[in-house]
Amino acid sequence: MPPRKPVAPAPQVPADAAVAFRRKLHRWFREHSRDLPWRRTRDPYRILISELMLQQTQVSRVLDFYRRFLERFPDLHALAKAKPQRVLEAWEGLGYYARARNLHKLAKHVTEARDGIIPSEPEELRALPGVGAYTAGAVASFAYEKRAALVDTNVARVLHRVFAPDLDPKSGAGLKRLWQIAEQLLPRTGKVVWTHNQALMELGALVCSARSPKCGTCPVHRVCASRDRFMASDPVVPLTKKRTRRVVKPE
Q1: pLDDT tens track of the chain, all 251 residues?
Q2: Same structural domain, 162 and 232
Q3: Which of 144, 166, 196 is the last residue of a domain?
Q4: Do residues 27 and 63 both lie within one domain?
Q5: Is the residue at 119 inside a domain?
Q6: Residues 31, 51, 112, 202: which is the catalytic one?
Q7: Of 117, 144, 171, which residue is a domain's last?
Q8: Three-state SS sequence of the chain
Q9: Same domain assignment for residues 154 and 134
Q10: Is 124 a known active-site residue?
Q11: Is residue 4 assigned to a domain?
Q12: Structural domain of 123
């Protein structure tokens, strides 16, 4: 049997490009981010609820559901004690009801097997019902300020356009490479990772959109490998600064 060929190391994002990208991205986020309720907390339960609700659902639609769901089930123990039908009723209107069923299973499992404590490490989070790689990274970095990468649809689009426009982001190899890029771009400390991951998602949602990217106001257009492809239809305009404010007010 012939020996296996050694696995080639993943290509590295140049250090100067990574630093420039992070600096511009974080500055933009501090000045232009939306004030969302799940950004004002470090409660892993509330962050988990928001992340599951936001899967394939727009922020504007989630806001009221998030508030009402927490009024009915204010903590993990209340959710675990609820009957499945009550959980589905509270979820009604959001669709994708497997999310609600898995959330209820997760609540029961964590209260019974983990003393009601949602784990902080991505590997442990991924073992929970309904938690994939993205959700694990989101809860770890947003609730526990762990140095964890995440790649959702918005983040994948940003990383694909900025750093790897030639790959197919929908292929297995392409998605794997985007996760590698996300890992390589992570800041060194967890507190900064919170800002970094939120900013990546916000940029994909507000600026680097799928159909009509606003390249003219994009904070990272100077380091974007796709700028020549999009800039002709959306030339650069000066960024208008919003009043700087504190993004996070943990509960």
Answers
A1: 555 555 456 789 999 999 999 999 999 999 999 999 999 999 999 999 999 999 989 999 999 999 999 999 999 999 999 999 999 999 999 999 999 999 999 999 999 999 999 999 999 999 999 999 999 999 999 999 999 999 999 999 999 999 999 999 999 999 999 999 999 999 999 899 999 999 999 999 999 999 999 999 999 999 999 988 887 655 555 545 554 444 454 54
A2: yes
A3: 144
A4: no
A5: yes
A6: 51
A7: 144
A8: CCCCCCCCCCCCCCHHHHHHHHHHHHHHHHHHCCCCHHHCCCCHHHHHHHHHHHCCCCHHHHHHHHHHHHHHCCCHHHHHHCCHHHHHHHHCCCCCCHHHHHHHHHHHHHHHHCCCCCCCCHHHHHCCCCCCHHHHHHHHHHHCCCCCCCCCHHHHHHHHHHHCCCCCCCCHHHHHHHHHHHHHHCCCCHHHHHHHHHHHHHHHHHCCCCCCCCHHHCCCHHHCCCHHHHHHHCCCCCCCCCCCCCCCCCC
A9: no
A10: no
A11: no
A12: 43-144
